[in-house]
Amino acid sequence: MPKVMIAEDDATMVSLLKTLLKMEGFETVVLSIDANVPEAVRIERPDVILLDVHLSRQSGLEILDDIRGSNDIKHVRVVMSSGANVKEECMNHGANGFLLKPYMPDDLISLLKRNIISN
Fold first, then answer.
1. pLDDT tens digits for 83-97?
2. Does the domain formed by 3-104 have CATH 3.40.50.2300?
3. How distant, in Å, are the alpha carbons of 19, 26, 72, 97, 102 from that of 83?
């Protein structure tokens, strides 16, 4: 079962994502708002990280930079999401995909599946 790590600070969004991903056959790991994401990646070994660009206490882009700069976890697939259209910036930082909120569940699932297959 593919594992998706969710780093998102909107509790409603997290709840919806967990339900959707479970229905689609994914295992989910939800991080707390203050989580050390690179450390959690080392422990959980997700197939894909769904990372919000604007977390309340952290920058998703800084987290992505930390992941890409760490030899042991730089290969992990990262899909960024935001209510602002910052796709180009995310891709320039090394994201494997971007979703503009609000997005359709089918768009999320197909993007996650593409990232897991190419992993």
1. 999 999 999 999 999
2. yes
3. 21, 24, 30, 15, 7
Place of tokens 């930079």: 65
User: Is the separation of the CB atoms in 41 and 68 below 8 Å?
Assistant: no
**Is 2 in contact with 27 (CB distance < 8 Å)?**
yes
Structure tokens at 77: 């697939």
Q: Specify the amino acid at residue 5.
A: M
Task: Give me the residue spans of the domains in the chain.
Answer: 3-104
Element (H, E) at 112: helix 105-117
Contact call for residues 7 and 46 (beta carbons, < 8 A): no
Q: In 3D, which of 98, 101, 114 has the Cα closest to residue 64?
A: 98
Taking only the tens place, the pLDDT of each residue in 50-75 is: 999 999 888 999 999 999 999 999 99
Helices (H), the chain: 11-23, 37-44, 60-68, 87-92, 105-117
Strand partners, 48: 4, 77
The pLDDT value recorded for residue 99 is 97
Q: Which amino acid is at 89?
A: E
